[in-house]
Amino acid sequence: MDHSRSAKGEARARAAKAPEDDAPVDVAVLGAGVVGMCTAYALARRGLRVVLVERAGEPGRGTSFANGAQLSFAYADALAQPSLWRKMPGMLADLDPAFRVRPSFDPEFLRWGLAFLRNCTGARFSQKTWAALELGVESQVALADMCAHHPFAFDHARPGKMHLFRDDAALARAEEVSQMKREAGFEQHVVGAAQAREIEPALTEAGHFVGALWTPEEEVGDPYLFCRGLLRVLRRDYGVIAQFDFAAGAPLITPDSVTIPERGSLRTVRARRMVVCLGIDAPAYLAPLGIRAAIQPMKGYSFAAPLGAHAPHVSLTDTARKIVFCRLGKTMRIAGLAELGVHDTAVDPARLRALVEGARAGLPHAARYDEAKDGWAGLRPMRPDSVPEVRRASERIFLNIGHGMLGWTFAAGCGERVAQQVLAADCELH
Ligand SMILES: Cc1cc2nc3c(=O)[nH]c(=O)nc-3n(C[C@H](O)[C@H](O)[C@H](O)COP(=O)(O)OP(=O)(O)OC[C@H]3O[C@@H](n4cnc5c(N)ncnc54)[C@H](O)[C@@H]3O)c2cc1C
User: Which H or E element spans position 53?
Assistant: First the structure.
């Protein structure tokens, strides 16, 4: 039996039924980035009536908008790792152009920083990377299932991914971690520079590198097109209602429902439960409810440019420069830079230039850099252990937040996880 078809029919029928006057819907999903969209899908697919609430005028306009576009299911390495102790002074002193820290005395920042440092041990790194790899496996399966049932265009492809290493020590460390990836079920090989160039001829222009990590099954896709395409599916096939231009204010929680008001208006959404998928805005939203979310922003940049004469086909990460190259249809999406503790999304022209020039130095003809457009900056919602927070926070509130550097990768799997938790809570009631 095709479960998704029956769930789809059930959801459509329930949505079509005129709701009793002020009967709450089953679930309000707050935030329509990749995480909120996948959450709405996973809930609606299970036959629940869902309302999506988003501050912007359309989905996918937050951090999800123009990220690196890599679906790196097997590259889920936790950011906190022992090698960071060595690099930390350089980051704090602004010596590493790709990774900067803006320290502050804000108690939340300090608490986060201490928790992050506690995670910089070998044992914690393995534990958290393993947890993220499990999420990677689930996400790849969930996304494939979604695409099989609802084919829609978002420049989705499976070109494989390569991590370039320019020094032997870094490659040796990656090789050690690679064993975990294979144990998790991913195909991943360490290849020498010559073999890497055979797989991806564009690397003949990459200058000196000692080898690469090659993961043939990794995928790419445009997250903004994904959000728009999935919204059409949610409305058409599952009767999901989307409330855009709706900045959610503090919810009113009663024994049987939660009412979410729009800030500065009389509009409200009433639901039996809500799932918070507010990305970088989650901590501020949750704090007045007494729910602490350990999330700090890590600003990054991207730009798009037409494909160059030697545009790579595989998705690439230049680990030394911390820059990713991702072919999306006829354009090259290039992303990078990490500024921990920076809260604004303004595009600093000097930082954007640093990214463009770093990419040009790494792969001079990957893109037509002089025609680069759409410079963009976004805030990665970082947790100190790099594992998203997907849990029930109270009777009616669920969290799906803190996806850090890999929210696009983890969105589908985290959506499934939180939907299972909501359903389990419903079962408790019956
Ligand atoms: C430069 C860069 C490159 C990246 N590259 C990759 C990559 O290659 N692969 C990968 O997997 N990940 C990547 N990421 C990370 C990824 O983009 C994020 O983890 C992911 O987008 C987080 O998704 P989200 O849905 O949680 O947040 P968002 O996309 O920010 O969605 C949250 C939504 O909540 C809305 N909102 C906020 N407050 C309210 C409110 N009060 N009421 C209603 N709505 C509200 C916002 O408008 C927003 O639409 C990258 C990030 C950056 C910055």
Answer: strand 50-53
Q: Categorize the per-residue pLDDT at 84 as very low, low, confident or very high, splitting at 50, 70 and 90.
A: confident
Q: Residue 351 belongs to a domain with what CATH number?
A: 3.30.9.10
Residue 27 located in a structural domain: yes
**Using a 6 Å cutoff on CB, does residue 418 contact ligand 1?**
no
Please tell me if the CB atom of residue 30 comes closer than 6 angstroms to any atom of ligand 1. yes
**What gap in Å lies between CA 355 and CA 349, rounded to an integer?**
10
Is the same domain home to 201 and 102?
yes
Is 61 a pocket residue for ligand 1 (Cβ < 6 Å)? yes
pTM: predicted TM-score of the whole model, two decimal places: 0.95
The rounded distance, in Å, linking the Cα atoms of 87 and 93 is 10
What is the 33 CA–ligand 1 centroid distance (Å)? 6
Q: Is the pLDDT of residue 212 over 80?
A: yes
Ligand 1 nearest-atom number relative to CA 404: 19
- List pLDDT tens digits, range 363-383: 999 999 999 987 999 999 999
